[in-house]
């Protein structure tokens, strides 16, 4: 009986973890219109681009996008 109860508890715990696990964040388009053509501030607020590179902040990513033909989105906030 103890074995059965243990299995039920383990299964219930694992099922609860799977159900409440957060969904993977979706990439988001950077809000480049807020930065215009002005130089970026030296704020360290890294974002991970969909190209696999870490940018110092959203403005830096937008600056690089102005130089490219293919646009990079934000994969997630933080280092890649």
Give a written overview of the molecule.
It contains 2 helices and 3 strands; from the N terminus they run H-E-E-H-E. By secondary structure, the chain is α+β, with helices and mostly antiparallel strands. It has a domain of 52 residues: Wheat Germ Agglutinin (Isolectin 2), domain 1. It has a 3-stranded antiparallel beta sheet with strand order 2-1-3. The longest helix is centred in the first third of the chain and has 19 residues. It is elongated.
Low-confidence stretches: none
**Major sheet, described briefly?**
3 strands, antiparallel
Q: What fraction of the residues are assigned to beta strands by DSSP? A: 5-15%
The helix content, as a percent range, equals 25-40%
Outline type:
elongated
Helix count, DSSP H or I runs of 4 or more residues: 2
- Straight-line distance between termini: 48 Å
At CATH level 2, the architecture of the domain at 28-79 is: 2-Layer Sandwich
What is the CATH topology classification name of the domain at 28-79? Wheat Germ Agglutinin (Isolectin 2), domain 1
Mean pLDDT: 83
Structural class: alpha+beta
Main β-sheet, spatial strand arrangement:
2-1-3
GO molecular function, one term: serine-type endopeptidase inhibitor activity
Pfam family, one: Kazal_1
Keywords: Disulfide bond, Protease inhibitor, Secreted, Serine protease inhibitor, Signal
Protein name: Kazal-like domain-containing protein
């Amino acid at each position: 009986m103890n074995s059965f109860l243990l299995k039920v508890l383990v299964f219930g715990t694992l099922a609860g973890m799977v159900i409440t696990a957060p969904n993977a964040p979706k990439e988001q388009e950077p809000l480049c219109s807020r930065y215009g053509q002005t130089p970026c501030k030296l704020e360290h607020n890294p974002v991970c681009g969909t190209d696999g590179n870490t940018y110092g902040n959203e403005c830096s990513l937008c600056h690089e996008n102005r130089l490219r033909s293919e646009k990079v989105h934000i994969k997630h906030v933080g280092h890649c």
